[in-house]
Protein backbone atom coordinates (compact mmCIF):
# COMPACT_ATOMS: atom_id res chain seq x y z
CA UNK A 1 0.00 0.00 0.00
CA UNK A 2 1.14 3.54 -0.76
CA UNK A 3 2.45 5.69 2.10
CA UNK A 4 1.79 9.39 2.64
CA UNK A 5 3.53 11.51 5.28
CA UNK A 6 1.81 14.60 6.66
CA UNK A 7 3.28 17.23 8.97
CA UNK A 8 1.15 19.62 11.02
CA UNK A 9 2.65 22.74 12.57
CA UNK A 10 2.02 24.28 15.95
CA UNK A 11 -0.81 26.55 14.81
CA UNK A 12 -2.62 23.54 13.30
CA UNK A 13 -2.68 21.72 16.65
CA UNK A 14 -2.87 24.80 18.90
CA UNK A 15 -5.96 23.62 20.81
CA UNK A 16 -8.19 20.58 21.17
CA UNK A 17 -10.69 21.77 18.56
CA UNK A 18 -7.96 22.11 15.95
CA UNK A 19 -6.53 18.74 16.91
CA UNK A 20 -9.96 17.20 16.23
CA UNK A 21 -10.07 18.90 12.83
CA UNK A 22 -6.58 17.62 12.00
CA UNK A 23 -7.69 14.12 13.03
CA UNK A 24 -10.57 14.36 10.55
CA UNK A 25 -8.18 15.42 7.79
CA UNK A 26 -5.87 12.50 8.62
CA UNK A 27 -8.76 10.05 8.51
CA UNK A 28 -9.97 11.44 5.17
CA UNK A 29 -6.49 10.76 3.77
CA UNK A 30 -6.58 7.21 5.16
CA UNK A 31 -9.93 6.63 3.43
CA UNK A 32 -8.18 7.19 0.10
CA UNK A 33 -6.52 3.80 0.52
CA UNK A 34 -3.10 4.93 1.67
CA UNK A 35 -1.11 4.35 4.83
CA UNK A 36 -0.62 7.56 6.79
CA UNK A 37 2.27 8.74 8.94
CA UNK A 38 1.73 12.06 10.70
CA UNK A 39 4.44 14.27 12.21
CA UNK A 40 3.32 16.94 14.67
CA UNK A 41 4.85 20.02 16.25
CA UNK A 42 4.14 21.20 19.78
CA UNK A 43 0.81 22.91 20.39
CA UNK A 44 0.84 26.65 19.63
CA UNK A 45 3.49 28.48 21.65
CA UNK A 46 4.28 25.51 23.92
CA UNK A 47 7.97 25.41 23.01
CA UNK A 48 8.39 29.13 23.75
CA UNK A 49 6.57 28.72 27.07
CA UNK A 50 8.74 25.79 28.11
CA UNK A 51 11.87 27.70 27.16
CA UNK A 52 10.70 30.71 29.20
CA UNK A 53 10.14 28.48 32.24
CA UNK A 54 13.63 27.07 31.86
CA UNK A 55 15.05 30.61 31.82
CA UNK A 56 13.15 31.38 35.03
CA UNK A 57 14.95 28.49 36.72
CA UNK A 58 18.36 29.05 35.16
CA UNK A 59 19.70 31.87 32.97
CA UNK A 60 22.03 29.40 31.26
CA UNK A 61 20.41 25.94 31.43
CA UNK A 62 22.13 22.75 30.33
CA UNK A 63 21.38 22.05 26.67
CA UNK A 64 20.83 18.40 27.49
CA UNK A 65 18.16 19.27 30.03
CA UNK A 66 16.65 21.78 27.61
CA UNK A 67 16.24 18.99 25.07
CA UNK A 68 14.58 16.78 27.67
CA UNK A 69 12.19 19.62 28.50
CA UNK A 70 11.41 20.91 25.01
CA UNK A 71 10.79 17.44 23.58
CA UNK A 72 7.77 17.20 25.90
CA UNK A 73 5.81 19.64 23.73
CA UNK A 74 5.63 17.34 20.71
CA UNK A 75 4.94 14.33 22.91
CA UNK A 76 1.81 16.00 24.25
CA UNK A 77 0.44 16.86 20.80
CA UNK A 78 1.24 13.42 19.32
CA UNK A 79 -0.66 11.64 22.11
CA UNK A 80 -3.66 13.97 21.88
CA UNK A 81 -3.87 13.58 18.09
CA UNK A 82 -3.64 9.80 18.43
CA UNK A 83 -6.56 9.89 20.87
CA UNK A 84 -8.56 12.09 18.48
CA UNK A 85 -7.98 9.72 15.54
CA UNK A 86 -8.99 6.75 17.70
CA UNK A 87 -12.23 8.54 18.63
CA UNK A 88 -13.07 8.61 14.91
CA UNK A 89 -12.93 4.83 14.77
CA UNK A 90 -9.44 4.32 13.37
CA UNK A 91 -6.48 2.62 15.00
CA UNK A 92 -3.64 5.01 15.81
CA UNK A 93 -0.46 4.98 17.84
CA UNK A 94 1.89 7.78 18.87
CA UNK A 95 5.67 7.36 18.77
CA UNK A 96 8.49 9.59 19.98
CA UNK A 97 11.38 10.50 17.72
CA UNK A 98 13.56 7.80 19.27
CA UNK A 99 10.83 5.15 18.96
CA UNK A 100 10.48 6.12 15.29
CA UNK A 101 14.20 5.59 14.65
CA UNK A 102 15.23 9.22 14.13
CA UNK A 103 18.98 8.91 14.72
CA UNK A 104 20.96 12.13 15.17
CA UNK A 105 24.39 13.39 16.06
CA UNK A 106 24.99 14.31 19.69
CA UNK A 107 24.66 18.09 19.41
CA UNK A 108 21.95 19.20 21.83
CA UNK A 109 19.50 21.96 20.82
CA UNK A 110 20.52 21.74 17.18
CA UNK A 111 21.10 18.12 16.24
CA UNK A 112 21.16 16.88 12.65
CA UNK A 113 19.52 13.67 11.47
CA UNK A 114 22.14 11.10 10.47
CA UNK A 115 19.82 8.28 9.47
CA UNK A 116 16.29 6.97 9.99
CA UNK A 117 15.60 3.42 11.16
CA UNK A 118 11.81 3.27 10.66
CA UNK A 119 11.32 -0.36 11.68
CA UNK A 120 8.78 0.36 14.42
CA UNK A 121 6.87 2.74 12.14
CA UNK A 122 6.72 0.08 9.41
CA UNK A 123 5.52 -2.54 11.89
CA UNK A 124 2.68 -0.30 13.06
CA UNK A 125 1.66 0.56 9.49
CA UNK A 126 1.53 -3.12 8.60
CA UNK A 127 -0.70 -3.66 11.63
CA UNK A 128 -3.17 -1.21 10.08
CA UNK A 129 -2.49 1.75 12.36
CA UNK A 130 -2.10 5.42 11.60
CA UNK A 131 1.26 6.43 13.07
CA UNK A 132 1.62 9.79 14.84
CA UNK A 133 5.26 10.84 15.31
CA UNK A 134 6.67 13.58 17.52
CA UNK A 135 8.58 16.02 15.34
CA UNK A 136 11.61 18.15 16.25
CA UNK A 137 13.36 15.36 18.15
CA UNK A 138 15.47 12.25 17.84
CA UNK A 139 18.03 10.21 19.72
CA UNK A 140 21.80 10.18 19.44
CA UNK A 141 23.94 7.07 19.17
CA UNK A 142 24.78 7.70 22.82
CA UNK A 143 21.06 7.22 23.58
CA UNK A 144 20.54 10.84 24.48
CA UNK A 145 17.33 12.68 23.54
CA UNK A 146 18.12 15.50 21.10
CA UNK A 147 16.14 18.29 19.47
CA UNK A 148 16.65 19.37 15.88
CA UNK A 149 16.42 23.14 16.15
CA UNK A 150 14.41 25.50 13.98
CA UNK A 151 12.22 23.74 11.40
CA UNK A 152 12.95 20.38 12.99
CA UNK A 153 9.46 18.95 12.53
CA UNK A 154 9.58 19.64 8.78
CA UNK A 155 12.91 17.83 8.61
CA UNK A 156 11.53 14.90 10.62
CA UNK A 157 8.65 14.52 8.17
CA UNK A 158 10.83 14.61 5.05
CA UNK A 159 13.43 12.25 6.52
CA UNK A 160 10.69 9.75 7.40
CA UNK A 161 9.14 10.11 3.94
CA UNK A 162 12.47 9.30 2.34
CA UNK A 163 13.16 6.32 4.60
CA UNK A 164 9.67 4.90 4.09
CA UNK A 165 9.61 5.48 0.33
CA UNK A 166 6.50 7.62 0.70
CA UNK A 167 4.63 8.77 -2.38
CA UNK A 168 4.82 12.35 -1.14
CA UNK A 169 5.10 14.47 1.99
CA UNK A 170 2.63 17.23 2.90
CA UNK A 171 3.77 20.14 5.05
CA UNK A 172 0.54 21.59 6.44
CA UNK A 173 0.47 24.97 8.16
CA UNK A 174 -1.54 28.19 8.38
CA UNK A 175 -0.46 29.38 4.91
CA UNK A 176 -1.66 28.19 1.50
CA UNK A 177 1.79 27.41 0.14
CA UNK A 178 4.78 29.28 -1.25
CA UNK A 179 4.09 32.78 -2.56
CA UNK A 180 6.13 35.00 -4.86
CA UNK A 181 6.62 37.21 -1.76
CA UNK A 182 5.23 37.46 1.75
CA UNK A 183 1.53 38.40 1.18
CA UNK A 184 1.61 40.47 4.37
CA UNK A 185 4.26 42.67 2.77
CA UNK A 186 3.31 42.47 -0.93
CA UNK A 187 -0.46 42.45 -1.49
CA UNK A 188 -0.04 41.35 -5.13
CA UNK A 189 2.03 38.26 -4.24
CA UNK A 190 0.99 35.14 -6.17
CA UNK A 191 0.70 31.55 -4.95
CA UNK A 192 3.27 29.45 -6.81
CA UNK A 193 2.02 26.17 -8.24
CA UNK A 194 5.45 24.54 -8.38
CA UNK A 195 8.99 25.34 -7.26
CA UNK A 196 12.13 23.27 -7.75
CA UNK A 197 14.07 21.86 -4.81
CA UNK A 198 17.00 24.10 -5.73
CA UNK A 199 15.03 27.34 -5.85
CA UNK A 200 13.11 26.50 -2.68
CA UNK A 201 16.37 25.76 -0.90
CA UNK A 202 17.61 29.24 -1.79
CA UNK A 203 14.36 30.86 -0.63
CA UNK A 204 14.22 28.90 2.61
CA UNK A 205 17.80 29.77 3.48
CA UNK A 206 17.22 33.46 2.80
CA UNK A 207 13.86 34.46 4.20
CA UNK A 208 10.93 32.31 3.07
CA UNK A 209 9.40 30.90 6.25
CA UNK A 210 7.07 28.25 4.79
CA UNK A 211 9.73 25.53 4.81
CA UNK A 212 13.10 25.19 6.50
CA UNK A 213 16.28 24.87 4.45
CA UNK A 214 17.40 21.58 6.01
CA UNK A 215 14.01 20.05 5.21
CA UNK A 216 14.40 21.03 1.54
CA UNK A 217 17.95 19.70 1.48
CA UNK A 218 16.70 16.31 2.71
CA UNK A 219 13.91 16.33 0.13
CA UNK A 220 16.33 17.07 -2.69
CA UNK A 221 18.84 14.40 -1.68
CA UNK A 222 16.17 11.73 -1.20
CA UNK A 223 14.01 12.94 -4.12
CA UNK A 224 10.94 13.38 -1.94
CA UNK A 225 8.03 15.24 -3.54
CA UNK A 226 6.77 17.92 -1.16
CA UNK A 227 3.49 19.80 -0.99
CA UNK A 228 3.13 22.96 1.10
CA UNK A 229 -0.56 23.42 1.93
CA UNK A 230 -2.95 25.08 4.35
CA UNK A 231 -4.17 22.63 6.99
CA UNK A 232 -7.76 23.79 6.86
CA UNK A 233 -7.87 25.06 3.28
CA UNK A 234 -8.63 23.41 -0.06
CA UNK A 235 -6.66 20.16 -0.15
CA UNK A 236 -6.21 20.57 -3.92
CA UNK A 237 -4.34 23.87 -3.64
CA UNK A 238 -0.81 24.53 -2.47
CA UNK A 239 2.70 24.46 -3.88
CA UNK A 240 4.51 21.39 -5.19
CA UNK A 241 8.24 21.27 -4.49
CA UNK A 242 10.19 18.74 -6.54
CA UNK A 243 12.67 18.61 -9.40
CA UNK A 244 10.57 20.75 -11.75
CA UNK A 245 9.64 24.42 -11.64
CA UNK A 246 6.90 26.57 -13.13
CA UNK A 247 7.44 30.32 -13.06
CA UNK A 248 5.10 31.08 -15.95
CA UNK A 249 5.99 34.25 -17.83
CA UNK A 250 8.49 35.28 -15.15
CA UNK A 251 12.14 34.29 -14.90
CA UNK A 252 12.02 35.03 -11.17
CA UNK A 253 10.25 32.63 -8.84
CA UNK A 254 10.06 34.76 -5.71
CA UNK A 255 11.41 37.60 -3.59
CA UNK A 256 12.07 36.83 0.08
CA UNK A 257 12.96 39.21 2.88
CA UNK A 258 14.48 38.33 6.22
CA UNK A 259 14.96 40.42 9.35
CA UNK A 260 16.84 40.08 12.64
CA UNK A 261 20.24 39.65 11.03
CA UNK A 262 23.52 40.63 12.64
CA UNK A 263 26.77 41.70 10.98
CA UNK A 264 30.08 41.06 12.72
CA UNK A 265 33.17 42.92 11.52
CA UNK A 266 36.86 42.36 12.19
CA UNK A 267 39.53 44.83 11.05
CA UNK A 268 43.29 44.78 10.79
CA UNK A 269 45.79 41.98 10.29
CA UNK A 270 44.44 38.44 9.87
CA UNK A 271 40.90 39.83 10.12
CA UNK A 272 39.35 36.79 8.44
CA UNK A 273 41.16 34.34 10.72
CA UNK A 274 40.12 36.27 13.83
CA UNK A 275 36.54 36.55 12.59
CA UNK A 276 36.21 32.84 11.91
CA UNK A 277 37.84 31.93 15.21
CA UNK A 278 35.37 34.10 17.13
CA UNK A 279 32.41 32.71 15.16
CA UNK A 280 33.56 29.12 15.66
CA UNK A 281 33.99 29.62 19.38
CA UNK A 282 30.41 30.94 19.58
CA UNK A 283 29.07 28.18 17.23
CA UNK A 284 27.54 30.81 14.95
CA UNK A 285 25.86 29.60 11.72
CA UNK A 286 27.22 31.61 8.79
CA UNK A 287 24.72 33.18 6.40
CA UNK A 288 27.30 35.17 4.42
CA UNK A 289 31.02 35.83 4.72
CA UNK A 290 32.89 38.61 2.96
CA UNK A 291 36.43 39.98 3.12
CA UNK A 292 38.04 43.05 1.57
CA UNK A 293 41.74 43.66 2.28
CA UNK A 294 41.89 44.12 6.07
CA UNK A 295 38.14 43.96 6.78
CA UNK A 296 36.11 40.77 7.23
CA UNK A 297 32.31 40.69 7.63
CA UNK A 298 30.19 37.77 8.78
CA UNK A 299 26.38 37.76 8.67
CA UNK A 300 24.05 35.45 10.59
CA UNK A 301 20.42 35.24 11.68
CA UNK A 302 19.35 35.68 15.30
CA UNK A 303 16.73 33.00 14.64
CA UNK A 304 19.62 30.50 14.58
CA UNK A 305 21.13 31.75 17.86
CA UNK A 306 18.58 31.28 20.69
CA UNK A 307 21.10 32.28 23.37
CA UNK A 308 22.19 35.50 21.62
CA UNK A 309 22.47 37.44 24.88
CA UNK A 310 25.26 35.28 26.25
CA UNK A 311 26.90 34.89 22.82
CA UNK A 312 26.93 38.67 22.40
CA UNK A 313 28.78 39.09 25.68
CA UNK A 314 31.46 36.62 24.57
CA UNK A 315 31.94 38.43 21.25
CA UNK A 316 32.25 41.90 22.75
CA UNK A 317 35.80 43.18 22.36
CA UNK A 318 36.68 40.59 19.70
CA UNK A 319 34.63 41.98 16.81
CA UNK A 320 32.35 44.92 15.97
CA UNK A 321 28.67 44.02 16.27
CA UNK A 322 25.96 45.62 14.10
CA UNK A 323 22.41 44.54 14.92
CA UNK A 324 19.05 45.48 13.30
CA UNK A 325 20.13 44.26 9.87
CA UNK A 326 18.16 42.42 7.20
CA UNK A 327 18.35 41.11 3.65
CA UNK A 328 16.19 40.64 0.57
CA UNK A 329 16.78 37.82 -1.93
CA UNK A 330 15.57 37.39 -5.49
CA UNK A 331 15.49 33.77 -6.70
CA UNK A 332 15.06 32.43 -10.21
CA UNK A 333 16.71 30.41 -12.96
CA UNK A 334 20.35 31.55 -13.36
CA UNK A 335 19.47 34.91 -11.80
CA UNK A 336 22.77 35.19 -9.97
CA UNK A 337 24.75 34.62 -13.17
CA UNK A 338 23.30 37.59 -15.04
CA UNK A 339 25.33 40.77 -14.59
CA UNK A 340 22.45 42.78 -16.07
CA UNK A 341 19.97 41.43 -13.53
CA UNK A 342 22.38 41.94 -10.65
CA UNK A 343 22.95 45.52 -11.74
CA UNK A 344 19.21 46.03 -11.94
CA UNK A 345 18.69 44.86 -8.35
CA UNK A 346 21.13 47.49 -7.12
CA UNK A 347 19.46 50.13 -9.28
CA UNK A 348 16.07 49.21 -7.83
CA UNK A 349 17.47 49.45 -4.31
CA UNK A 350 18.92 52.89 -5.01
CA UNK A 351 15.62 54.03 -6.49
CA UNK A 352 13.84 52.89 -3.33
CA UNK A 353 16.27 54.84 -1.17
CA UNK A 354 17.82 51.69 0.29
CA UNK A 355 21.53 51.55 1.08
CA UNK A 356 22.99 48.14 0.20
CA UNK A 357 25.50 47.06 2.85
CA UNK A 358 26.64 43.92 1.02
CA UNK A 359 25.65 41.62 -1.82
CA UNK A 360 25.84 37.86 -2.21
CA UNK A 361 25.01 35.65 -5.18
CA UNK A 362 24.59 32.04 -6.23
CA UNK A 363 23.57 30.71 -9.65
CA UNK A 364 19.90 30.94 -8.64
CA UNK A 365 19.86 33.93 -6.29
CA UNK A 366 20.96 37.47 -5.51
CA UNK A 367 20.83 38.74 -1.92
CA UNK A 368 21.04 42.39 -0.90
CA UNK A 369 21.91 43.09 2.74
CA UNK A 370 20.46 46.26 4.23
CA UNK A 371 19.07 47.84 7.39
CA UNK A 372 16.20 45.90 8.94
CA UNK A 373 13.87 48.88 8.54
CA UNK A 374 14.40 48.79 4.75
CA UNK A 375 13.54 45.11 4.20
CA UNK A 376 9.83 45.57 3.45
CA UNK A 377 10.24 48.52 1.07
CA UNK A 378 13.03 46.73 -0.82
CA UNK A 379 10.95 43.54 -1.04
CA UNK A 380 8.07 45.51 -2.53
CA UNK A 381 10.31 47.32 -5.01
CA UNK A 382 12.05 44.16 -6.24
CA UNK A 383 8.75 42.29 -6.54
CA UNK A 384 7.27 45.11 -8.65
CA UNK A 385 10.30 45.05 -10.91
CA UNK A 386 10.73 41.31 -11.45
CA UNK A 387 7.27 39.80 -10.83
CA UNK A 388 4.82 42.50 -11.97
CA UNK A 389 5.40 43.28 -15.66
Question: What are its keywords?
Answer:
single chain; 389 residues; alpha/beta; Carbamate kinase; VC0802-like; eight-stranded mixed beta sheet; six-stranded antiparallel beta sheet; 18 strands; globular
Molecular structure report:
By secondary structure, the protein is an alpha/beta fold. The protein folds into 2 domains: 3-174, 3-Layer(aba) Sandwich (Carbamate kinase); 254-387, VC0802-like (2-Layer Sandwich). It contains 11 helices and 18 strands. It has helices at 16-30, 46-57, 63-87, 119-126, 152-164, 197-205, 213-222, 271-281, 308-315, 339-351, 375-387; strands at 3-8, 35-40, 92-95, 102-104, 113-116, 130-134, 137-140, 145-147, 168-173, 194-196, 226-230, 239-242, 254-267, 288-292, 295-301, 320-331, 358-362, 365-371. The strands form 3 sheets. An 8-stranded mixed sheet has the order 3-6-2-1-9-11-12-10, sandwiched between helices. β7 and β8 form a beta hairpin.
> Helix share of residues?
25-40%
Structural class: alpha/beta
CATH homology superfamily name of the largest domain: Acetylglutamate kinase-like
Distance between the termini: 46 Å
Gyration radius, in Å: 22 Å
Shape: globular
Strand content: 25-35%
CATH class of the largest domain, anyone? Alpha Beta
Q: What's the CATH architecture name of the largest domain?
A: 3-Layer(aba) Sandwich
Biggest sheet, spatial arrangement of strands:
3-6-2-1-9-11-12-10
Number of strands: 18
Amino acid sequence: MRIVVQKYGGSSVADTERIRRVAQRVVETRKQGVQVVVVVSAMGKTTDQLLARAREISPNPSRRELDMLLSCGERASMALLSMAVTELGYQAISLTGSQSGIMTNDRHSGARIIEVRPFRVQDELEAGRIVIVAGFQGVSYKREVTTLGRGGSDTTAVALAGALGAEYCEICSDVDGVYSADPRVVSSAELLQAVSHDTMLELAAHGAKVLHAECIDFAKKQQVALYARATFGDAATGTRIDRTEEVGSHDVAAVAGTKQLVRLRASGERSMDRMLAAAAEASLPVLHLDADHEIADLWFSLADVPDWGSVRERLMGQVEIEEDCGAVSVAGDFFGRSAAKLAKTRSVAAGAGVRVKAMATSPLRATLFCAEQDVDVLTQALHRTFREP
